[in-house]
Protein backbone atom coordinates (compact mmCIF):
# COMPACT_ATOMS: atom_id res chain seq x y z
CA UNK A 1 0.00 0.00 0.00
CA UNK A 2 1.22 3.47 -0.86
CA UNK A 3 0.59 4.68 2.68
CA UNK A 4 3.66 2.69 3.82
CA UNK A 5 5.53 5.77 2.73
CA UNK A 6 4.67 7.74 5.87
CA UNK A 7 7.34 6.99 8.46
CA UNK A 8 6.18 9.44 11.11
CA UNK A 9 2.73 10.94 11.47
CA UNK A 10 2.58 13.89 13.83
CA UNK A 11 -0.66 15.22 15.31
CA UNK A 12 -0.19 18.87 16.21
CA UNK A 13 2.01 21.62 14.73
CA UNK A 14 3.01 23.32 17.98
CA UNK A 15 6.60 23.48 19.26
CA UNK A 16 6.81 19.70 19.90
CA UNK A 17 5.31 18.66 16.56
CA UNK A 18 7.23 21.20 14.45
CA UNK A 19 10.55 20.41 16.08
CA UNK A 20 9.99 16.64 15.72
CA UNK A 21 9.17 17.15 12.03
CA UNK A 22 12.32 19.22 11.41
CA UNK A 23 14.57 16.67 13.16
CA UNK A 24 12.90 13.68 11.49
CA UNK A 25 13.38 15.25 8.04
CA UNK A 26 17.10 15.67 8.82
CA UNK A 27 17.30 11.88 8.97
CA UNK A 28 15.34 11.35 5.78
CA UNK A 29 12.04 10.23 7.29
CA UNK A 30 8.79 10.80 5.39
CA UNK A 31 6.75 13.00 7.72
CA UNK A 32 3.07 13.97 7.70
CA UNK A 33 1.83 16.63 10.13
CA UNK A 34 -1.89 17.10 10.82
CA UNK A 35 -3.00 20.24 12.64
CA UNK A 36 -6.42 21.63 13.44
CA UNK A 37 -5.45 25.30 13.09
CA UNK A 38 -5.09 27.19 9.79
CA UNK A 39 -1.38 27.99 10.35
CA UNK A 40 1.51 26.36 12.25
CA UNK A 41 2.64 27.29 15.77
CA UNK A 42 0.18 25.63 18.12
CA UNK A 43 -1.45 27.88 20.69
CA UNK A 44 1.82 29.26 22.05
CA UNK A 45 3.02 30.47 18.64
CA UNK A 46 -0.48 30.92 17.23
CA UNK A 47 -0.52 32.88 13.96
CA UNK A 48 3.24 33.54 14.32
CA UNK A 49 3.97 33.66 10.56
CA UNK A 50 1.18 36.20 9.92
CA UNK A 51 1.78 38.50 12.88
CA UNK A 52 2.70 42.19 12.38
CA UNK A 53 5.42 44.26 14.15
CA UNK A 54 2.89 45.94 16.46
CA UNK A 55 1.55 42.63 17.77
CA UNK A 56 5.03 41.11 17.98
CA UNK A 57 6.09 44.05 20.18
CA UNK A 58 3.12 43.52 22.52
CA UNK A 59 3.46 39.74 22.66
CA UNK A 60 7.20 39.85 23.36
CA UNK A 61 10.35 37.87 22.61
CA UNK A 62 9.14 34.46 23.77
CA UNK A 63 6.40 34.62 21.15
CA UNK A 64 8.64 35.98 18.39
CA UNK A 65 11.08 33.14 19.08
CA UNK A 66 8.56 30.77 17.50
CA UNK A 67 8.98 32.34 14.05
CA UNK A 68 12.27 30.63 13.29
CA UNK A 69 10.98 27.19 14.23
CA UNK A 70 7.79 27.69 12.20
CA UNK A 71 9.85 28.78 9.16
CA UNK A 72 12.20 25.80 9.56
CA UNK A 73 9.18 23.53 9.79
CA UNK A 74 7.60 24.91 6.61
CA UNK A 75 10.95 24.54 4.79
CA UNK A 76 11.62 21.04 6.19
CA UNK A 77 9.87 19.06 3.48
CA UNK A 78 7.36 17.55 5.91
CA UNK A 79 3.87 17.24 4.44
CA UNK A 80 1.70 19.63 6.42
CA UNK A 81 -2.10 19.51 6.47
CA UNK A 82 -3.67 22.47 8.31
CA UNK A 83 -7.36 22.49 9.21
CA UNK A 84 -7.31 18.73 9.91
CA UNK A 85 -9.39 17.62 12.92
CA UNK A 86 -8.38 14.15 14.12
CA UNK A 87 -11.44 12.18 15.21
CA UNK A 88 -10.06 8.68 15.69
CA UNK A 89 -6.65 7.13 16.31
CA UNK A 90 -6.05 3.40 16.08
CA UNK A 91 -3.47 1.41 18.03
CA UNK A 92 -1.59 0.58 14.82
CA UNK A 93 -0.80 4.23 13.96
CA UNK A 94 -3.92 4.62 11.85
CA UNK A 95 -5.39 8.11 12.02
CA UNK A 96 -8.80 9.34 10.84
CA UNK A 97 -9.29 13.06 10.35
CA UNK A 98 -11.77 15.57 9.01
CA UNK A 99 -10.65 17.97 6.32
CA UNK A 100 -13.04 20.43 4.69
CA UNK A 101 -16.03 18.35 5.71
CA UNK A 102 -14.66 15.00 4.47
CA UNK A 103 -13.13 12.18 6.46
CA UNK A 104 -9.68 10.90 5.49
CA UNK A 105 -7.76 7.92 6.86
CA UNK A 106 -4.00 7.56 6.85
CA UNK A 107 -1.61 4.82 7.98
CA UNK A 108 1.87 5.52 9.28
CA UNK A 109 4.74 3.47 10.68
CA UNK A 110 5.14 5.59 13.81
CA UNK A 111 2.86 8.12 15.48
CA UNK A 112 3.63 11.20 17.55
CA UNK A 113 0.85 12.77 19.59
CA UNK A 114 1.83 16.42 20.05
CA UNK A 115 -1.55 17.85 20.92
CA UNK A 116 -0.30 20.09 23.72
CA UNK A 117 -2.29 21.48 26.58
CA UNK A 118 -5.46 23.35 27.26
CA UNK A 119 -6.38 25.51 30.21
CA UNK A 120 -7.47 23.83 33.41
CA UNK A 121 -11.20 24.31 33.94
CA UNK A 122 -11.95 26.93 36.59
CA UNK A 123 -15.45 26.15 37.87
CA UNK A 124 -16.53 29.13 39.96
CA UNK A 125 -20.05 30.54 40.32
CA UNK A 126 -21.02 32.37 37.12
CA UNK A 127 -18.20 31.01 34.94
CA UNK A 128 -20.64 30.01 32.19
CA UNK A 129 -21.91 33.59 31.66
CA UNK A 130 -21.17 35.36 28.36
CA UNK A 131 -18.27 37.75 28.95
CA UNK A 132 -16.35 35.17 30.97
CA UNK A 133 -13.53 33.64 28.95
CA UNK A 134 -10.23 31.97 29.65
CA UNK A 135 -7.08 34.11 29.74
CA UNK A 136 -5.73 31.92 26.96
CA UNK A 137 -8.73 32.93 24.86
CA UNK A 138 -7.88 36.59 25.50
CA UNK A 139 -4.35 35.95 24.30
CA UNK A 140 -5.51 33.99 21.24
CA UNK A 141 -7.77 36.92 20.28
CA UNK A 142 -4.70 39.17 20.41
CA UNK A 143 -2.47 36.75 18.47
CA UNK A 144 -4.95 35.72 15.81
CA UNK A 145 -7.27 38.73 15.45
CA UNK A 146 -5.39 41.70 17.01
CA UNK A 147 -8.23 42.15 19.51
CA UNK A 148 -7.77 43.83 22.90
CA UNK A 149 -10.27 44.44 25.70
CA UNK A 150 -12.22 47.64 25.04
CA UNK A 151 -13.40 48.39 28.57
CA UNK A 152 -12.71 47.32 32.14
CA UNK A 153 -11.33 43.78 32.33
CA UNK A 154 -10.61 41.59 35.35
CA UNK A 155 -7.93 38.89 35.17
CA UNK A 156 -8.40 36.25 37.84
CA UNK A 157 -6.71 33.04 38.99
CA UNK A 158 -3.03 32.17 39.01
CA UNK A 159 -0.15 30.99 36.85
CA UNK A 160 2.47 32.41 34.49
CA UNK A 161 0.08 32.86 31.54
CA UNK A 162 -2.18 35.11 33.64
CA UNK A 163 0.72 37.42 34.57
CA UNK A 164 2.09 37.34 31.03
CA UNK A 165 -1.26 38.39 29.60
CA UNK A 166 -1.49 41.21 32.18
CA UNK A 167 1.94 42.48 31.08
CA UNK A 168 1.01 42.20 27.39
CA UNK A 169 -2.21 44.17 27.96
CA UNK A 170 -0.32 46.84 29.92
CA UNK A 171 2.21 47.08 27.08
CA UNK A 172 -0.68 47.60 24.69
CA UNK A 173 -1.96 50.45 26.86
CA UNK A 174 -4.99 48.56 28.19
CA UNK A 175 -6.21 49.60 31.65
CA UNK A 176 -6.92 46.51 33.76
CA UNK A 177 -9.54 46.80 36.50
CA UNK A 178 -7.59 44.35 38.60
CA UNK A 179 -5.44 41.26 38.70
CA UNK A 180 -7.16 38.99 41.21
CA UNK A 181 -4.51 36.49 42.24
CA UNK A 182 -5.46 33.29 44.04
CA UNK A 183 -1.80 32.61 44.93
CA UNK A 184 -0.58 33.85 48.29
CA UNK A 185 2.50 34.08 50.47
CA UNK A 186 2.00 30.66 52.00
CA UNK A 187 2.31 29.15 48.52
CA UNK A 188 5.64 30.88 48.09
CA UNK A 189 6.98 29.38 51.34
CA UNK A 190 5.92 25.94 50.10
CA UNK A 191 7.69 26.62 46.86
CA UNK A 192 11.05 27.48 48.43
CA UNK A 193 11.68 23.77 49.04
CA UNK A 194 12.33 23.46 45.31
CA UNK A 195 14.71 26.40 45.00
CA UNK A 196 18.12 24.63 44.77
CA UNK A 197 17.02 22.57 41.80
CA UNK A 198 15.11 25.49 40.32
CA UNK A 199 18.30 27.53 40.10
CA UNK A 200 19.21 25.40 37.09
CA UNK A 201 16.16 26.94 35.47
CA UNK A 202 17.21 30.49 36.35
CA UNK A 203 16.03 31.86 33.04
CA UNK A 204 12.46 30.86 33.81
CA UNK A 205 12.74 32.27 37.30
CA UNK A 206 14.05 35.61 36.04
CA UNK A 207 11.27 35.70 33.51
CA UNK A 208 8.68 35.16 36.26
CA UNK A 209 10.25 37.76 38.51
CA UNK A 210 10.47 40.35 35.75
CA UNK A 211 6.79 39.80 34.91
CA UNK A 212 5.81 40.43 38.53
CA UNK A 213 8.15 43.46 38.73
CA UNK A 214 6.51 44.96 35.64
CA UNK A 215 3.10 44.47 37.22
CA UNK A 216 4.28 46.20 40.40
CA UNK A 217 5.69 49.13 38.42
CA UNK A 218 2.41 49.55 36.58
CA UNK A 219 0.67 50.13 39.94
CA UNK A 220 -2.00 47.75 38.79
CA UNK A 221 -4.53 46.80 41.49
CA UNK A 222 -3.16 43.35 42.37
CA UNK A 223 -5.15 41.43 45.01
CA UNK A 224 -3.42 38.37 46.46
CA UNK A 225 -4.77 35.31 48.20
CA UNK A 226 -8.20 35.92 46.69
CA UNK A 227 -10.96 33.55 47.81
CA UNK A 228 -14.72 33.09 47.26
CA UNK A 229 -14.44 34.07 43.58
CA UNK A 230 -17.81 34.67 41.94
CA UNK A 231 -19.13 36.29 38.78
CA UNK A 232 -22.46 38.10 39.03
CA UNK A 233 -24.81 38.65 36.12
CA UNK A 234 -28.08 37.54 34.57
CA UNK A 235 -27.61 37.32 30.79
CA UNK A 236 -23.92 38.26 30.83
CA UNK A 237 -21.12 39.04 33.30
CA UNK A 238 -21.78 42.22 35.26
CA UNK A 239 -19.39 42.09 38.22
CA UNK A 240 -16.51 40.09 39.66
CA UNK A 241 -16.70 39.44 43.42
CA UNK A 242 -14.08 37.99 45.78
CA UNK A 243 -12.54 38.39 49.21
CA UNK A 244 -8.93 39.33 49.81
CA UNK A 245 -7.13 40.53 52.95
CA UNK A 246 -10.28 40.17 55.03
CA UNK A 247 -12.31 42.45 52.72
CA UNK A 248 -15.07 41.62 50.27
CA UNK A 249 -14.70 43.24 46.85
CA UNK A 250 -17.13 43.75 43.98
CA UNK A 251 -15.68 45.04 40.70
CA UNK A 252 -18.18 45.97 37.96
CA UNK A 253 -17.02 44.50 34.63
CA UNK A 254 -18.44 42.83 31.52
CA UNK A 255 -15.24 40.94 30.74
CA UNK A 256 -13.56 38.43 33.05
CA UNK A 257 -10.58 36.34 31.95
CA UNK A 258 -9.95 33.25 34.10
CA UNK A 259 -6.85 31.08 34.31
CA UNK A 260 -5.40 28.53 36.71
CA UNK A 261 -2.72 26.78 34.73
CA UNK A 262 -2.73 24.39 31.80
CA UNK A 263 -3.19 20.62 31.71
CA UNK A 264 -2.25 17.97 29.12
CA UNK A 265 -4.80 17.29 26.39
CA UNK A 266 -5.13 13.55 27.01
CA UNK A 267 -8.14 12.80 24.78
CA UNK A 268 -6.14 10.70 22.30
CA UNK A 269 -3.98 8.93 24.89
CA UNK A 270 -7.06 7.98 26.96
CA UNK A 271 -8.94 6.87 23.83
CA UNK A 272 -6.02 4.50 23.13
CA UNK A 273 -6.32 3.08 26.69
CA UNK A 274 -2.72 3.97 27.50
CA UNK A 275 -1.49 3.78 31.07
CA UNK A 276 -1.92 7.14 32.85
CA UNK A 277 -0.80 8.28 36.30
CA UNK A 278 -2.37 10.98 38.42
CA UNK A 279 0.18 13.70 39.16
CA UNK A 280 -0.30 15.21 42.62
CA UNK A 281 2.19 17.97 41.75
CA UNK A 282 0.41 19.05 38.56
CA UNK A 283 -3.10 17.86 39.53
CA UNK A 284 -3.72 16.16 36.21
CA UNK A 285 -3.31 12.88 34.31
CA UNK A 286 -0.09 12.04 32.53
CA UNK A 287 0.40 9.18 30.09
CA UNK A 288 3.38 6.93 30.89
CA UNK A 289 6.38 7.51 28.59
CA UNK A 290 9.96 6.28 28.46
CA UNK A 291 12.95 8.63 28.12
CA UNK A 292 12.36 8.89 24.34
CA UNK A 293 8.67 9.72 24.71
CA UNK A 294 7.40 6.26 23.68
CA UNK A 295 4.16 5.29 25.44
CA UNK A 296 2.84 1.98 26.71
CA UNK A 297 1.72 1.38 23.09
CA UNK A 298 4.81 0.47 21.05
CA UNK A 299 5.38 2.87 18.17
CA UNK A 300 3.18 5.62 19.61
CA UNK A 301 4.98 8.60 21.14
CA UNK A 302 3.97 11.73 23.02
CA UNK A 303 6.01 14.94 23.14
CA UNK A 304 5.38 18.27 24.80
CA UNK A 305 2.61 19.46 27.09
CA UNK A 306 0.28 16.70 25.87
CA UNK A 307 2.34 14.34 28.04
CA UNK A 308 3.16 16.55 31.03
CA UNK A 309 3.30 20.30 31.41
CA UNK A 310 6.84 21.51 30.74
CA UNK A 311 6.39 24.53 28.50
CA UNK A 312 7.25 25.32 24.88
CA UNK A 313 11.03 25.01 25.16
CA UNK A 314 10.82 21.59 26.81
CA UNK A 315 8.33 20.57 24.12
CA UNK A 316 10.84 21.39 21.38
CA UNK A 317 13.53 19.23 22.94
CA UNK A 318 11.11 16.35 23.51
CA UNK A 319 10.05 16.58 19.87
CA UNK A 320 13.66 16.24 18.78
CA UNK A 321 14.19 13.22 21.04
CA UNK A 322 11.13 11.46 19.60
CA UNK A 323 12.39 12.08 16.07
CA UNK A 324 15.80 10.59 16.96
CA UNK A 325 14.16 7.53 18.55
CA UNK A 326 11.91 6.99 15.50
CA UNK A 327 14.85 7.44 13.10
CA UNK A 328 16.71 4.81 15.06
CA UNK A 329 13.75 2.38 15.17
CA UNK A 330 13.38 2.73 11.39
CA UNK A 331 17.09 2.05 10.83
CA UNK A 332 18.05 5.55 9.72
CA UNK A 333 20.36 5.96 12.72
CA UNK A 334 22.28 3.39 14.74
CA UNK A 335 21.88 3.38 18.51
CA UNK A 336 25.26 4.98 19.21
CA UNK A 337 24.63 7.83 16.77
CA UNK A 338 21.14 8.37 18.24
CA UNK A 339 22.56 8.53 21.77
CA UNK A 340 25.25 10.95 20.66
CA UNK A 341 22.77 13.26 18.92
CA UNK A 342 20.39 13.06 21.89
CA UNK A 343 22.89 14.44 24.38
CA UNK A 344 22.27 18.08 23.53
CA UNK A 345 18.45 17.99 23.62
CA UNK A 346 18.55 15.86 26.79
CA UNK A 347 20.70 18.47 28.54
CA UNK A 348 18.51 21.32 27.31
CA UNK A 349 15.40 19.45 28.41
CA UNK A 350 16.75 18.99 31.95
CA UNK A 351 17.44 22.74 32.16
CA UNK A 352 13.96 23.58 30.82
CA UNK A 353 12.27 21.33 33.38
CA UNK A 354 14.37 22.37 36.39
CA UNK A 355 12.12 25.25 37.46
CA UNK A 356 8.91 23.33 36.82
CA UNK A 357 8.42 21.93 40.38
CA UNK A 358 8.77 25.48 41.69
CA UNK A 359 6.22 26.84 39.20
CA UNK A 360 3.85 23.96 40.03
CA UNK A 361 4.12 24.67 43.76
CA UNK A 362 3.90 28.46 43.43
CA UNK A 363 0.81 28.45 41.25
CA UNK A 364 -0.99 25.38 42.56
CA UNK A 365 -4.67 26.09 41.92
CA UNK A 366 -6.82 26.43 45.03
CA UNK A 367 -9.03 23.48 45.99
CA UNK A 368 -12.15 25.69 46.08
CA UNK A 369 -11.61 26.59 42.40
CA UNK A 370 -11.17 22.93 41.36
CA UNK A 371 -13.65 21.19 43.64
CA UNK A 372 -16.44 23.75 43.87
CA UNK A 373 -19.56 24.15 46.01
CA UNK A 374 -22.68 22.20 45.13
CA UNK A 375 -24.42 24.93 43.12
CA UNK A 376 -21.54 25.44 40.68
CA UNK A 377 -21.79 23.94 37.18
CA UNK A 378 -18.88 21.58 36.46
CA UNK A 379 -20.08 20.16 33.11
CA UNK A 380 -20.81 23.23 30.98
CA UNK A 381 -22.26 21.27 28.03
CA UNK A 382 -24.88 19.31 29.99
CA UNK A 383 -25.16 21.86 32.83
CA UNK A 384 -24.40 19.38 35.60
CA UNK A 385 -23.49 20.86 38.99
CA UNK A 386 -20.92 19.62 41.50
CA UNK A 387 -23.89 18.92 43.81
CA UNK A 388 -25.44 16.49 41.31
CA UNK A 389 -22.14 14.63 41.04
CA UNK A 390 -21.86 14.45 44.85
CA UNK A 391 -25.46 13.22 45.14
CA UNK A 392 -24.71 10.43 42.67
CA UNK A 393 -21.63 9.41 44.67
CA UNK A 394 -23.94 9.02 47.68
CA UNK A 395 -26.03 6.68 45.51
CA UNK A 396 -22.95 4.56 44.93
CA UNK A 397 -21.36 6.13 41.86
CA UNK A 398 -17.63 5.31 41.96
CA UNK A 399 -16.07 7.22 39.07
CA UNK A 400 -16.52 9.63 36.15
CA UNK A 401 -17.73 7.07 33.61
CA UNK A 402 -20.45 5.93 35.98
CA UNK A 403 -21.33 9.56 36.79
CA UNK A 404 -21.89 10.04 33.07
CA UNK A 405 -24.64 7.44 33.05
CA UNK A 406 -26.16 8.88 36.25
CA UNK A 407 -26.30 12.55 35.24
CA UNK A 408 -24.88 13.00 31.69
CA UNK A 409 -21.77 14.91 32.81
CA UNK A 410 -19.13 14.68 30.07
CA UNK A 411 -21.66 13.62 27.43
CA UNK A 412 -21.85 16.96 25.61
CA UNK A 413 -19.89 18.01 22.53
CA UNK A 414 -16.67 18.88 24.45
CA UNK A 415 -16.57 15.23 25.55
CA UNK A 416 -15.38 15.95 29.05
CA UNK A 417 -12.47 18.19 28.14
CA UNK A 418 -13.86 20.98 30.34
CA UNK A 419 -15.27 18.89 33.19
CA UNK A 420 -13.19 15.71 33.33
CA UNK A 421 -10.67 16.88 35.91
CA UNK A 422 -13.33 18.60 38.04
CA UNK A 423 -15.56 15.50 38.03
CA UNK A 424 -12.62 13.24 38.96
CA UNK A 425 -11.63 15.51 41.84
CA UNK A 426 -15.20 16.07 43.11
CA UNK A 427 -15.79 12.30 43.22
CA UNK A 428 -12.38 11.66 44.84
CA UNK A 429 -13.09 14.24 47.55
CA UNK A 430 -16.57 12.88 48.21
CA UNK A 431 -15.29 9.29 48.40
CA UNK A 432 -12.21 10.44 50.36
CA UNK A 433 -9.85 8.57 48.05
CA UNK A 434 -7.11 9.64 45.64
CA UNK A 435 -8.06 10.67 42.08
CA UNK A 436 -5.93 7.73 40.91
CA UNK A 437 -8.52 5.39 42.49
CA UNK A 438 -11.41 7.27 40.86
CA UNK A 439 -9.95 7.36 37.35
CA UNK A 440 -11.16 9.27 34.32
CA UNK A 441 -13.87 9.14 31.66
CA UNK A 442 -13.63 6.27 29.21
CA UNK A 443 -12.84 8.42 26.18
CA UNK A 444 -14.08 7.03 22.87
CA UNK A 445 -13.99 8.12 19.26
CA UNK A 446 -15.24 10.19 17.56
CA UNK A 447 -12.93 12.64 19.34
CA UNK A 448 -14.57 15.45 17.36
CA UNK A 449 -18.24 15.40 16.35
CA UNK A 450 -18.66 13.92 12.87
CA UNK A 451 -21.79 13.56 10.76
CA UNK A 452 -22.84 10.33 9.07
CA UNK A 453 -22.34 12.02 5.70
CA UNK A 454 -18.74 12.88 6.63
CA UNK A 455 -18.17 9.34 7.84
CA UNK A 456 -19.60 7.93 4.61
CA UNK A 457 -17.26 10.15 2.58
CA UNK A 458 -14.12 8.60 4.11
CA UNK A 459 -11.22 8.15 1.69
CA UNK A 460 -7.53 7.27 1.92
CA UNK A 461 -5.01 10.05 2.35
CA UNK A 462 -3.79 11.20 -1.06
CA UNK A 463 -0.04 10.65 -1.17
CA UNK A 464 0.57 12.26 -4.53
CA UNK A 465 3.28 14.94 -4.33
CA UNK A 466 1.78 18.12 -2.97
CA UNK A 467 2.28 21.50 -4.50
CA UNK A 468 3.36 23.86 -1.74
CA UNK B 1 -15.95 48.60 16.01
CA UNK B 2 -19.39 49.01 17.59
CA UNK B 3 -19.50 50.99 20.82
CA UNK B 4 -20.79 48.05 22.88
CA UNK B 5 -18.09 45.57 21.86
CA UNK B 6 -15.99 44.04 24.62
CA UNK B 7 -12.99 44.22 22.28
CA UNK B 8 -11.24 46.77 20.08
CA UNK B 9 -9.00 45.91 17.17
CA UNK B 10 -5.49 47.18 16.64
CA UNK B 11 -5.10 48.79 13.23
CA UNK B 12 -4.25 46.06 10.70
CA UNK B 13 -3.67 45.97 6.95
CA UNK B 14 -6.14 43.15 6.40
CA UNK B 15 -9.08 44.05 4.15
CA UNK B 16 -12.65 43.57 5.32
CA UNK B 17 -15.08 40.88 4.27
CA UNK B 18 -18.87 41.00 4.64
CA UNK B 19 -20.60 38.32 6.69
CA UNK B 20 -24.18 38.12 7.95
CA UNK B 21 -25.17 37.51 11.54
CA UNK B 22 -28.87 36.80 12.13
CA UNK B 23 -29.55 38.48 8.80
CA UNK B 24 -27.60 41.67 9.64
CA UNK B 25 -24.55 42.51 7.51
CA UNK B 26 -21.23 42.85 9.39
CA UNK B 27 -17.96 44.17 7.96
CA UNK B 28 -15.16 42.17 9.63
CA UNK B 29 -11.41 41.83 9.04
CA UNK B 30 -10.45 38.94 6.77
CA UNK B 31 -8.40 36.02 8.09
CA UNK B 32 -9.94 35.88 11.56
CA UNK B 33 -12.28 33.27 13.03
CA UNK B 34 -16.06 33.69 13.04
CA UNK B 35 -15.94 33.73 16.88
CA UNK B 36 -13.39 36.58 16.91
CA UNK B 37 -15.42 38.44 14.29
CA UNK B 38 -18.62 38.18 16.35
CA UNK B 39 -16.85 39.32 19.53
CA UNK B 40 -15.27 42.24 17.65
CA UNK B 41 -18.71 43.19 16.30
CA UNK B 42 -20.24 43.51 19.76
CA UNK B 43 -22.18 40.22 19.69
CA UNK B 44 -22.30 39.24 23.37
CA UNK B 45 -24.27 35.97 23.13
CA UNK B 46 -23.78 33.42 20.39
CA UNK B 47 -25.94 30.45 21.42
CA UNK B 48 -28.56 29.13 23.86
CA UNK B 49 -27.86 25.84 25.62
CA UNK B 50 -29.71 22.66 24.75
CA UNK B 51 -30.53 21.89 28.41
CA UNK B 52 -31.80 25.12 30.01
CA UNK B 53 -31.69 27.66 27.19
CA UNK B 54 -29.06 29.72 29.04
CA UNK B 55 -27.07 32.22 26.96
CA UNK B 56 -23.45 31.39 26.15
CA UNK B 57 -20.57 32.95 24.23
CA UNK B 58 -17.09 31.87 23.07
CA UNK B 59 -14.96 30.71 26.01
CA UNK B 60 -11.66 29.04 24.99
CA UNK B 61 -11.12 30.22 21.38
CA UNK B 62 -9.11 27.06 20.58
CA UNK B 63 -11.65 24.41 19.70
CA UNK B 64 -11.83 22.74 23.10
CA UNK B 65 -14.97 23.96 24.87
CA UNK B 66 -17.68 23.95 22.14
CA UNK B 67 -19.29 27.02 23.74
CA UNK B 68 -19.12 29.01 20.49
CA UNK B 69 -21.42 26.70 18.51
CA UNK B 70 -23.30 28.58 15.77
CA UNK B 71 -25.11 27.82 12.54
CA UNK B 72 -22.87 28.53 9.52
CA UNK B 73 -24.51 28.64 6.08
CA UNK B 74 -27.34 26.48 7.41
CA UNK B 75 -25.09 23.86 9.01
CA UNK B 76 -25.86 23.61 12.75
CA UNK B 77 -23.36 23.16 15.62
CA UNK B 78 -20.26 24.63 13.94
CA UNK B 79 -17.41 25.76 16.18
CA UNK B 80 -17.20 29.49 15.42
CA UNK B 81 -13.60 29.63 16.67
CA UNK B 82 -12.54 27.02 14.08
CA UNK B 83 -14.14 28.61 11.00
CA UNK B 84 -12.40 31.47 9.18
CA UNK B 85 -14.62 34.31 7.95
CA UNK B 86 -15.25 34.63 4.22
CA UNK B 87 -17.39 36.91 2.06
CA UNK B 88 -21.08 36.09 2.23
CA UNK B 89 -20.85 33.68 5.18
CA UNK B 90 -24.24 33.46 6.88
CA UNK B 91 -24.08 32.93 10.65
CA UNK B 92 -26.91 32.39 13.12
CA UNK B 93 -27.05 31.66 16.83
CA UNK B 94 -27.29 27.98 17.72
CA UNK B 95 -30.62 27.95 19.57
CA UNK B 96 -30.57 24.86 21.78
CA UNK B 97 -30.07 21.43 20.24
CA UNK B 98 -30.02 21.11 16.45
CA UNK B 99 -33.35 20.12 14.92
CA UNK B 100 -33.33 16.40 14.07
CA UNK B 101 -35.50 17.10 11.07
CA UNK B 102 -33.37 20.03 9.85
CA UNK B 103 -32.68 18.33 6.54
CA UNK B 104 -36.34 17.51 6.01
CA UNK B 105 -37.24 21.14 6.72
CA UNK B 106 -34.55 22.26 4.30
CA UNK B 107 -36.06 19.95 1.71
CA UNK B 108 -39.50 21.46 2.34
CA UNK B 109 -38.09 24.96 1.78
CA UNK B 110 -36.58 23.82 -1.49
CA UNK B 111 -39.98 22.51 -2.53
CA UNK B 112 -38.86 18.86 -2.44
TrEMBL record, chain A:
GO terms for molecular function: oxidoreductase activity. Keywords: Oxidoreductase. InterPro entries: BFD-like_2Fe2S-bd_dom_sf, FAD/NAD-bd_sf, FAD/NAD-binding_dom, Metab_Enz_Cyan_OpOx_G3PDH, Opine_Oxase_asu/HCN_bsu, SoxA_A3. It comes from the Bacteria. Residues 382-457 form the SoxA A3 domain. Residues 7-127 form the FAD/NAD(P)-binding domain. CDD domains: GlpA-like_Fer2_BFD-like. This is NADPH-dependent 2,4-dienoyl-CoA reductase, sulfur reductase.
Automatic annotation (TrEMBL), chain B:
Coiled coil: none annotated. One of its GO terms (molecular function) is oxidoreductase activity. Pfam families: Fer2_4. Keywords: Oxidoreductase. This is 2Fe-2S iron-sulfur cluster binding domain-containing protein. The lineage of its organism: Bacteria, Pseudomonadati, Pseudomonadota, Gammaproteobacteria, Pseudomonadales.
